């Protein structure tokens, strides 16, 4: 079930380096939010803080709050593994488990979450997830073949099937189309449009047209200079960001004056 994410006063560190400072934002359920901004301003860092992937890096930590429908993701009783099950992630490069079959790639997350399931229930869930990722028709006759044998765009949809199989509440996507050709990119964008009905989606993209095409809300990150922390300086409906942003820096960025 899609959930609301409320971020308050979030600071994100790598050791002593403050990479992202003071993010306050509320992301509504069943919407797509795009995060845009120049390289190094902390978009990916912020995204990874939303499912506690950030802390996997030694010395990395956050201050502030990320609350999902009332659940404090960094609270003392919150388990990072369960957070990552609730908040799924799709990466820039499609990363199916290379030696695993297409079927097992989708089933992997369910097995890791040690849900005991009959073979026929698992078959149903794998099919539903592959259909949900608009991949079923292309792979239904070769489910036992390795995931690595698919095209890049198919591999990315396989990764999305794997992510949605565990029924997360939120789906994070870090430049999911940057390694894909335009046709595969459109297939993923169509898919995002369908997935928004079931999930809260946050996507990092360098592609302004993509942000404009797929998202309802856009967050613009910026930084004042090298070594300075990135900040989310504007969060607004995407239409407003691209037609009449509140901040001059947002306008300069989207009109290609920097970045
Ligand atoms: N593992 C890490 N260890 C230390 N610093 C890091 C690490 N990853 C990122 N950083 C730093 O944190 C800051 C934000 O980086 P991040 O990758 O989040 O930016 P970004 O906006 O996603 O950039 P890009 O658009 O180029 O992907 C940068 O100064 C970067 O050098």
UniProtKB/TrEMBL annotation:
GO terms for biological process: phosphate ion transmembrane transport. GO terms for molecular function: ATP binding; ATP hydrolysis activity; phosphate transmembrane transporter activity. PROSITE patterns: ABC_TRANSPORTER_1 (PS00211), ABC_TRANSPORTER_2 (PS50893). Residues 5-248 form the ABC transporter domain. GO terms for cellular component: membrane. Keywords: ATP-binding, Nucleotide-binding, Translocase, Transport. The keyword Nucleotide-binding applies. InterPro entries: AAA+_ATPase, ABC_transporter-like_ATP-bd, ABC_transporter-like_CS, P-loop_NTPase, PstB-like. SUPFAM superfamilies: P-loop containing nucleoside triphosphate hydrolases. It comes from the Bacteria. This is Phosphate import ATP-binding protein PstB. It comes from Modestobacter marinus. The gene is pstB.
């Amino acid at each position: 079930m899609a959930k609301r994410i409320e971020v308050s006063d979030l600071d994100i560190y790598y050791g002593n380096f403050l990479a992202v400072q003071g993010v306050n934002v509320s992301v509504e359920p069943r919407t797509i939010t795009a995060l845009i901004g120049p390289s190094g301003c902390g978009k990916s860092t912020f995204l990874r803080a939303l499912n506690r992937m950030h802390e996997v890096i030694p010395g990395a930590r956050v201050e502030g709050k990320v609350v999902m429908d009332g659940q404090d993701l960094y609270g003392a009783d919150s388990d990072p593994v369960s957070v990552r099950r609730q908040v799924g992630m799709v990466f820039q490069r499609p990363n199916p488990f290379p030696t695993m079959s297409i079927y097992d790639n989708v089933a992997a997350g369910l097995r890791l979450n040690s849900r005991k399931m009959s073979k026929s229930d698992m078959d149903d869930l794998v099919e539903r997830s592959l259909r949900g990722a608009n991949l079923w028709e292309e792979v239904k006759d070769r489910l036992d073949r390795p995931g690595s044998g698919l095209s890049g765009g198919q591999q990315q949809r396989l990764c999305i099937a794997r992510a949605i199989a565990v029924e997360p509440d939120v789906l994070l996507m870090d430049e999911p189309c940057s390694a894909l050709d335009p046709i595969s990119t459109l297939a993923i964008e169509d898919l995002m449009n369908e997935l928004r009905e079931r999930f809260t989606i946050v996507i990092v993209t360098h592609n302004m047209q993509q942000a404009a095409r797929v998202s309802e809300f856009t967050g613009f990150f910026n930084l004042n200079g090298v070594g300075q922390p990135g900040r989310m300086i504007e969060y607004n409906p995407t239409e407003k960001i691209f037609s009449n942003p509140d901040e001059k820096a947002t306008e300069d960025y989207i009109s290609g004056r920097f970045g």
